[in-house]
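User: Modeling request: complex.
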Amino acid sequence: MFLAWKEIRHSKAKFGLIISVVALVSYLVYFLTSLAYGLASSYTNGVTKWKADEIVLTVDSNNNVMMSFMNNEDYDSIDVQDGKRAKLGLFPAVIKDADDDTKDTREEIYVFGIEENSFIAPKEVITSGLEDNEIIADSGLKELGYAVDDNVRVAGTSLTWKIVAFTEKATYQTAPILYANLATWRELRYGSSSSDSFSAVVVQGTATLSSDTPLQVYSISEFISNLPGYNAQVATFSIMIGFLIVIVAFVLGIFIYVLTIQKTSMFGVMKAQGISNLFIGNSVVAQTIIITGIGVAIGLILTLISGYFLGGFVPFAINPLFYIGITIAFFLFSILGGLFSVRAVLKIDPLKAIG
Amino acid sequence: MSKLIEMINITKDFIQGDDIVHALKETNFSAEEGELIAIIGPSGSGKSTFLTILGGLQTPTTGQVLIGGQPFSKLALKERSKVRFEKIGFILQAANLIPFLSINDQMVLHNRVLRTKPNQERIEELYTRLDIKKLQKKYPNELSGGERQRVAIAKALYHDPVVILADEPTAALDTNRAFEVIKLLAKQTKEQKKATIMVTHDERLIEFCDKVYVIVDGVMSRKK
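Assistant: Request completed. Predicted assembly structure:
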């Protein structure tokens, strides 16, 4: 530690460059992680908002909620002990502002048909209620110029709905969610509210199906990983982040190795004087840890600053757990890189220092 | 006076291809308190082999080295490093200073390795003796060659070793500087009651030494 720190203090420019490389790459990794997490969340916010354990779809739907058609008979065949169940209708639509014809923008949204008193209803329903042709919208729509009491027209239909409240973090497959009651949802889905049809049953607890029902229970995580594009996207980001961490370890490992090789004669003299491999090796590893520590701290600070300023434009979301995991990975891999140099230290022959 | 370091019937052979090279033929040697001893000889004569065996960096083929009457060369490599660290002070050709440590930090490196507290009194004393007090905050590259070797002597003496081994300590110095450094080394050897063994090919330094040995083709003989 003594040697490691003294050397960094003495060669500020050299170590400043190395630290800045670590800082920039770790910045990239943290930022990318926040974006990946933000994007993944915008796929699933509407689902995690349920705080549910399972979802029941028809077997024929092949785990595609949009292709699942259920009725009250199906609902009754699902038994949940010590838990709750809630009917869900799900269908996409395009909306536009009904009050302002000059506004020529359309938004792609998902309509979640729910029962007003079910556990999957957003909490705003308590104060706003949810009558026919009323909706509670994702707060993202506020940024697009919508306000409470605004009317929206559903493109391709004659339906007009009124926004009665906004709710936070209600997105599904990156699009905002509009919550409507089941009757309103059926008007959209089937053109009439007379059927008893809906898409799925969301379950808190464990669902048991009576035999010979054409239904299937999926865990929420199975359901999420089956959302179109979700797994591919998460895998893409994970691979990128993983590679970046390994690259940092390599770059840092190579830097430390070059520095170690440059110091061969100095280490040789130290070994000739009887200073142990342990002491020298420790200071090499300590140096790696100091460089990683400072670099990663700068990267993290830059990420938080960028997140603060860019949060509105990109899906930036902070997950401390991911940050901790990545930081641990950074340290582990860079220590591995440092240990590579310790091998070089062990091989230095103190005899070379004399004669 | 007691023998601080002793070589008993030492030989060192190397195998080079099919030949055996006798780098050091049977050698007996000892150094006593207060003695500054020079080992001279042409390059390749076995001087360095002699010094590295004395310092425990190489194991002799036969015979053994004792430090303060205790076996040294027969110890395991790791143990030998430990004894070397405690009982031997080194002064090397290019000065054994670490480029990124200030002179103050060079002195306490020994403590850092052992995780002990620096002996400020000792440091002050050595600074005064070697007249390097004004250099204490400087780095090696800011010092002249002579200053560097004075610091190296202070550093070698700091941990109160039994023996000081010097490898060409004046190689990088002009005559005046070299004389100055050797006089200091001789004086400190006497005052601090150490034995200093110095390998050099600079015969001008002989007049400051108590004993002089010559090594030619692995055979050592007393010259003075």
